[in-house]
Design brief:
Layout: E1 5-12, H1 15-24, E2 28-33, E3 38-43, E4 46-52, E5 59-63, H2 79-88, E6 93-95, E7 105-110, E8 116-121
Parallel strand pairs: 1-4, 5-8
Antiparallel strand pairs: 1-5, 2-3, 3-4, 6-7, 7-8
């Protein structure tokens, strides 16, 4: 199963402080909008998202159809195919994609320890 780009989406208290902290670790801004209180930062192929006030906990994120540079992949598993595979494995989803549509969609699930996983397809 091809899940695409991997990142950690961090729920931060102060985006300016978090941005400065991660820049000191060698991360640089890659996308987002600090006025809207969200940024994507990158260090080599490590990607983190900083999100102030958008969700209560950190989220493991995968983006089918994208590589670690947000470039489109020629071949990828659509989120609806991933969804069906997970359901066939008996995994409960907390959010499901509409199977009658194509293109952007997302699903969410939790691992056995309660960590939230977002599989977010943008194309």
């Amino acid at each position: 199963m091809k899940l695409g780009a991997f990142s950690i989406s961090l729920a931060v208290k102060n985006i300016q402080e978090s941005k400065a902290f991660y820049e000191n670790l060698g991360f640089t801004s890659f996308g987002g909008n600090i006025e809207q209180k969200w940024l994507i930062l990158k260090n080599d192929n490590a990607i983190i998202g900083l999100f102030e006030g958008m969700f209560p906990n950190n989220i493991i994120t995968f983006n089918p159809g994208w590589d670690e540079n947000a470039q489109n992949l020629d071949e990828f598993d659509d989120v609806r195919i991933i969804q069906q595979h997970l359901k066939n494995c008996g995994i409960t989803l907390t959010t499901e994609a509409n199977t009658t549509t194509e293109g952007p969609a997302h699903i969410t699930l939790s691992d056995p320890d309660g960590n939230i996983i977002l599989i977010d397809q943008h194309r």
